[in-house]
Amino acid sequence: MNEKIKSFGFENLDFNGNLGHTIEKDRNNRIYFEKSNMKKLTENMLFTFEPHIRMVGKKYGFKLENIYYFEKGSVREL
Fold this sequence. Notes:
This protein has a 4-stranded antiparallel beta sheet with strand order 2-3-6-7, with no helix packed on it. It has one helix spanning 2-7, and strands at residues 10-12, 20-22, 46-49, 52-55, 62-63, 66-71, 74-77. 8% of the residues lie in helices and 33% in strands. With 78 residues, it is mostly beta strands.
């Protein structure tokens, strides 16, 4: 995914290189959206997609955190 971000002229500013995570009662159980993660999300999971990005070579970036879930195979936003 970071390669896709770079192809649009942006860079990921997240310290761990992830783009979001599941929402859990215990933060230690989060599934992070990162290159090494191969786990699938289920319909019962809430998750964020929150890329922290900036244009390559620029000083400031942008981060927007939305919460999503699956319903009948489609992604819905809270």
